[in-house]
Fold this sequence. Notes:
Blueprint: H1 5-9, E1 23-24, H2 36-44, H3 58-68, E2 75-78, H4 81-92, E3 98-102, H5 108-115, E4 119-123, H6 132-138, E5 143-149, H7 161-170, E6 176-180, H8 198-201, E7 205-210, E8 223-227, H9 229-238, H10 246-257, H11 259-282, E9 294-298, H12 303-312, E10 315-316, E11 318-319, E12 328-332, H13 336-352
Parallel strand pairs: 1-10, 3-4, 3-5, 5-6, 6-7
Antiparallel strand pairs: 2-8, 7-8, 9-12, 11-12
Helix pairs in contact: 2-10, 3-10, 4-5, 4-9, 11-13
The chain binds pyridoxal-5'-phosphate.
Amino acid sequence: MQPRKTVLDIPPYSPGMRVPGKIKMASNENPLGMGPLAARAVADSIGELHIYPDGGAGELTRALGAATGLDPACIITGNGSDEVIFLAAAAYLNPGDTVLVADHTFSEYRFSSTLMDGRVHTVPMQDGFFDLEAFRAALDASTRIVFLCSPNNPTGTIIPFASFLAFMEQVPSDVLVLMDQAYAEFVDDPDYGDVVPLVHRFPNLLVTRTFSKLHGLAGLRLGYGMGNPGLISVLSRVKPPFNTSLAAQAAGVAALADHDFQERSKELNRTGRAWITARLEAMGLRPWHSQANFVCVETRRDARALFQVIMDGGVILRPCGSFGLPGCLRISVGTPEQNRLCMDLLEGALKTVPPLS
Ligand SMILES: *Cc1c(COP(=O)(O)O)cnc(C)c1O
């Protein structure tokens, strides 16, 4: 049997590694786990798991509407925001259409587009920041989707509201702009603004977010997309009927109501992120000043070699070779003890792994 040619062209996803007994600071999960209200909702859902979930995720969609200020018709939920990205490519790409993707960003955009037989045009970033002028210059008649990510994975950098708005005003209205905000809740830079209300003004804007990071529900798989009702109804057509589970929907509603857990998670991240950044700078490195729940740093060494030494010491990090940054390590913010152990291990590893000349 021969799979479609495109399928053979797709490289396997490279996930953060997991090894029993080692501390995982590789996938930007919440070090506090999930919140107590979400945990109770999952436990309570057990008695109902023999019935199908609400395919439209009505209660969750209404709760998301209340939380974001949008009408529920502007929201679609997905099996992780990964799935919403996938739905966008499935709904809008004809074979041969072009998508624009940055050179050092999340791999899902390239994956979904390639699977739909789209052509991926890579746009260079500027020192870890999105270069929207380069994106604008790369637009042509074949461009169907532009993928942006803010805060960006893996650099943690943001796109300021003002530059994003100026970009949206220049993009033709038949080009979908997907703004991936998986880490939006961790941002404290006032320049970030709030792009969500722009979905009313730009029918070609889709903003995605997730319950995997702040809310600690990565294993349940729950994300959502926000856009104009017309766009959302098109995505709904390609959505599998029961794409989010009953347990995930219940957990999502509870997580949105758990403000105490959200605040504790943000505070732990804010202090840990600043502490890790300061330690890296004290080692003579220049980390990006991240707005997410991880810190990325250029080590001027083979990051895989550092990763190996640090893993032998008990902590799993993410070397960024698969993001096209072979000298960079991405460090998920953990608990204070985990952060300290991780930085001590890195400091030691920098002495054993020689700098690249
Ligand atoms: C983690 C992450 C996601 C979230 O994926 P889920 O499918 O919602 O778990 C989306 N985009 C980026 C950039 C991410 O880093």
